[in-house]
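Handout, section B. The chain below has 242 residues.
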Amino acid sequence: MKFTPLLIVLFFAQFTFSQLKSGKIIYKVQPMEDTTTIDLKDDQAQSFLEKKQEQRERNLQFLSYTLVFNAKESFFETQDMMENDSGVDLIKTAWHAGVFGIYYSNIEENLKLRYFESMDKSLLLHTKFHNLDWTIGKETKVIQGYTCQKATATANINGIKKRTVTAWFTREIPFQFGPAGIDGLPGMILGLERRNIYFYADSISLSKKSKKIERPTRGQKISEGEWKELLEEALQQTPWGR
């Protein structure tokens, strides 16, 4: 049997990727164009709102997230949540980005865990791994040298409302994980668009050695339905929720 140079390259590339057992990805954040507008009918209030929004968008550049993974598990969290040298409150910035706490996924157990603190409670939210119905498109783009394919799904963002998320995943990295608990595609998610914010892989390191992943255990165990009830109760305590 004769092998053409291209077939030889593809063979060894597939062999190399099949040997991968773990990895680490650093994600950065940048704002996307937001076409929605809010008219407050008050120039001073409108100006204040716009300046606050611009400040939040500038602060996003200081956010950095880490995803570590092996063949069956992943662990995603924010890097260094202390105030940085520029005086930016990264905890508040992460809340504005809608991605805070610790996200853990386990394919074999069909399980996702998310640990976070809210309303003076430490919570551990349990959901299923296969909880997104993806539509894979034909559009592609390159991220960090990997060809990524576009996919969309409707996801419940922080238990508040369902929104469309767009993921850019690559089959060249054969793991089903991604940032912020968004996963389940036939390849690693290197780019994620949600709530007018873009999460993108800034650095990627892969290994042929297995990596142990620690699952979060702290926090009061709650389901997605119970979390929604807590949010609705909290909303009723606000002036606009009564």
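Note. Confidence is low (pLDDT under 50) at residues 6-16. Compare this with the example in section A.
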